[in-house]
Amino acid sequence: MANGEIKVCVVGCCGRMGREVVKAVSAHQRMRIVAGVDLVQVGEDVGAIAGIGEVGIKVQSDLRSVLKESNANVAVEFTHPSATFENAMICIECGVAPVIGTTGWTQEMVSQLRDLCERYGVPAVIAPNFAIGAVLMMKFASEAAKYFDHVEIIELHHDRKADAPSGTALRTAELMLQARGKPFSGPSGGDTHITLPEVRGGSKDGIRIHSVRLPGLVAHQEVIFGGYGQVLTIRHDSLGRESFMPGVLLAIERVLSLRGLIYGLEHLL
Ligand code: NAP
To answer: Omega before 165 cis (within 30°)?
Structure first.
């Protein structure tokens, strides 16, 4: 890390988030893109793909050899739920701190990665949502969860999202349950006669979660609390992928000074 410069490898550099990360890191004074990994557009210039002109770094497909050759300090990972765990393991085994935005992480996967971070002495950050407003939405929802017995989450994303429900919806549910210390009451008013299967969404400890997928959307969520004669709605909208970049840059800056695995951007704010 000469001159305090952080050398960054972007894993999934040709994807929607990866391209945005390449732009944000390239524009940062103390960070430099040193490698890009993806399964597509191999051999093409990472900067050209991101729309910022050539940066002299070609897309490669073998993460392990890229990390060994590139001297990267940090690997930012936005790929696919089926690939993220293995990518994270490779980073840690290579001594490169991963900053992971890919969703689909189960609690078991998180705890396995935590053990690996300890064993190799390599820090890591996983954040289901890097947008500051979304982190605040989760914080406010956790606070409200102590006072309301009924809640439903509606998460809305673009139609090419790989997983459902979103990592943000699951994390919101986890944080609300932690803050409350007990499950929610679920729907009141007796059993609903269901005439369309799954119309009430999925259920986690009394919290109904509904996933909307439509072209035109980016990433949005409403947490709706119901009480006697009142409703409290907490809503966040990511209107563009640049909304995630201040959080990603913060995690890149902070990860190397951490110990072990940090799960959730709220721990870095
Ligand atoms: P995307 O446009 O599909 O980009 C993912 C890229 O990664 C694609 O180019 C994909 O190639 C590539 N890829 C897949 N497996 C790979 C592997 N093993 N090694 C290297 N590259 C691989 O997806 P996206 O919209 O950028 O989203 C990526 C992830 O980030 C999703 O899980 C999404 O939910 C999450 N996300 C998180 C946040 C947050 O704040 N934490 C915000 C937005 C999105 P192929 O096209 O060949 O599969």
So the answer is: yes
